Amino acid sequence: xxxxxxxxxxxxxxxxxxxxxxxxxxxxxxxxxxxxxxxxxxxxxxxxxxxxxxxxxxxxxxxxxxxxxxxxxxxxxxxxxxxxxxxxxxxxxxxxxxxxxxxxxxxxxxxxxxxxxxxxxxxxxxxxxxxxxxxxxxxxxxxxxxxxxxxxxxxxxxxxxxxxxxxxxxxxxxxxxxxxxxxxxxxxxxxxxxxxxxxxxxxxxxxxxxxxxxxxxxxxxxxxxxxxxxxxxxxxxxxxxxxxxxxxxxxxxxxxxxxxxxxxxxxxxxxxxxxxxxxxxxxxxxxxxxxxxxxxxxxxxxxxxxxxxxxxxxxxxxxxxxxxxxxxxxxxxxxxxxxxxxxxxxxxxxxxxxxxxxxxx
Length: 361
Ligand SMILES: Nc1ncnc2c1ncn2[C@@H]1O[C@H](COP(=O)(O)OP(=O)(O)OP(=O)(O)O)[C@@H](O)[C@H]1O
Ligand SMILES: [Mg+2]
Known about the structure:
There is one protein chain. The chain is an alpha/beta fold and about 350 residues long. It contains ten helices and 16 strands. Helix 1 (about 65-80) crosses helix 3, helix 5 runs antiparallel to helix 7 (about 265-285) and helix 7 (about 265-285) packs parallel to helix 8.
């Protein structure tokens, strides 16, 4: 089993009765669970925790070993004394087809039907097999036309997430997309400066998610198949040690046998590769060329790779900071402050999910 220090991190509160929501971020290396209550502008974090998953639990952007995920979710629910049952979770953006269309301004009822008609043309899947959702992004031409974002996810993929939630004794209320969760998380940090271009770089175990926000609104999203696991593998190969030993070394700086080398130097080549890939991808989408980033926030479990923020700062030429996803939250006294401070960036997607409520758009 890979090194993992976190389990239940909050004390039970038997007196709590308010109904909250459970946010579940099911990643390829771990499940992140948060419980929050309250609405816009007054979110309150009640509990949070994470448990590791076996490498086969999530594959090809869906849950492939449901039993393993159900077990982890049940353990987190129990260990954290979670009372809420309604779940907000997310599929990875990679599993989603996103298209922007323009439509003449129209009433909501009309819009439903027209969106479906337009989706037939732009979504490369039979609409029977997908869950389709949309959001009006913007009004143009003096309010005569509007930009509408279409989002389609294959039902088969969504079902793997909802099955797990149900089998864990919970009820799925919203299945979001991780890109949107990151955008919502960022929105909590306040009004963006006019003309700002913020880059969110979320580095997980297998994927790095890029999200560029112009004036707070997502203008580019994408993923790179390069993240924490590649760093562990690099250590493993260079030092000829096991994957688990390499993982422990990467996360704690402690190497079995006590011969602690320079971890940041060891990781430098792979930091450079990731930075190269990020810059290349952003350039492809016109960011870094005609439009410059104004700031970058790092999140995800791998945001704390020693030396990575500095390498990215050098390559991107803008300040790169660790993300604090809980800036817009008040925090229950049950939550261990130390743990929260130490691991907040890991919960970036989860924090964004906490802001979603059934029926909101
Ligand atoms: N303190 C740390 N320093 C460096 N890396 C860390 C640290 N803590 C966790 N990690 C790494 O973070 C990764 C897990 O991050 P995260 O939980 O965001 O990924 P995930 O959501 O499971 O995966 P993905 O989103 O890619 O499917 C692992 O590779 C782990 O080794
Ligand atoms: Mg993740």
